[in-house]
Every structure is written in C-alpha cells, then in structure tokens.
Amino acid sequence: MQSAPTREGPRVNEEIRVPQVRLIDEEGEMQGIMSTRDALTRAFSSGLDLLEISPTAVPPVVKILDYGKFKYEQQKKKNEARKKQKVIEIKEVKVRPGTGEHDFQTKLKAIHSFLDAGDKVKVSLRFKGREMAHQELGIKMMERIRIEVEEKAKIEQMPRLENRQMLMVMAPR
Q1: Structural contact between residues 143 and 123, judged by C-beta atoms closer than 8 angstroms
Q2: Tens-digit pLDDT profile for residues 2-33
Q3: Which of 19, 71, 91, 152 sits at 20 to 30 Å (Cα–Cα) from 126?
Q4: Counting beta carbons within 10 angstroms of the beta carbon of residue 50, is it exposed (0 to 12), middle (13 to 18) or buried (19 or more)?
Q5: Which run of H or of E encompasses 173?
Q6: Which of helix, strand or coil describes residue 76?
Q7: In whole angstroms, how large is the CA radius of gyration of the chain?
C-alpha cells in the first residue's frame, strides 16, 4: 500500500509514482484504472495537470484539472472559513470581598457587556491578609454575581478557591 504524501498538499504530475491509478477526467467522469503514464499523457494532451485526490485508496484516485486553479480555490475556501470563525476570548473581572455597591454594579455592567459580545468571563476574587479568615464573604459575593448574570450566562466552572484567590468561569448562553 502506498503511503500518504510527505510534502504539503497533494502530489501532482510526475510526483505520482505508483504503477496504476484510478482516473477521473476533467468533466468529473470516472475513466477507470490505468497506468500512471497513460493518465499523465491524457492530462498533458488536454493542457491540464494530474492531481492525486485520494492517495490512500488502492489504487490511488487521480483527477485531471488545472492545479493553479485548484490551489486558488483551496486558498479561497480556507480564507472564507477563517472569516466565519469567531474567536472566543476570556475576559477577566477582578473583585474583592469588600467591593462597594457602586463598584460592584460597574463590574456587573462590564460582565454583561462581555457576555453580550460572546466572550467568556472569568471572575476572580482575591483575598488579602486577614480576609482569608472570612471566606464566606467571598462566597456571598460570587453567589451574588452568579444570580445577577443567571439569565445571560451559564456557569462553566463553579467558584473554587486557589491559594488566596476564588475563581468562577461563565460562558454566554
């Protein structure tokens, strides 16, 4: 059995080094199994290239087409796919156990805008000094945030303590 090509992209013309191939002509019709030399002769007589479509098949499937046009179409498809792709970022909002009401509302507004934009939000609550003794304040703060954004977000990671920091990750619904 022939191994897959080692270079980038499919093999073309003389790079196809198998004794027999299954040929598809330029109209897309199956011509059957023939020698690689005959397939190359047919491709060159029509002024086109012989391109290996399925290298792992036995015998490999080749097609007569314009290789430059084929590469252009592939690049176009790749660029189109890249355009449609949405990159999800993780935005971080930092709060403290003693965050005041107005600051809390401001941070909540930021969380809502991040979720509306389709980004994930990581809420980190940092304890300093003796605040570690009152972790229940941090838990209350995280619970309040969770309740406030319940309709817009689903909790991917419930609040958990890591060293002196409590983390919670939310994703938009």
Answers
A1: no
A2: 555 456 778 888 888 888 999 998 888 888 89
A3: 152
A4: buried
A5: none
A6: helix
A7: 30
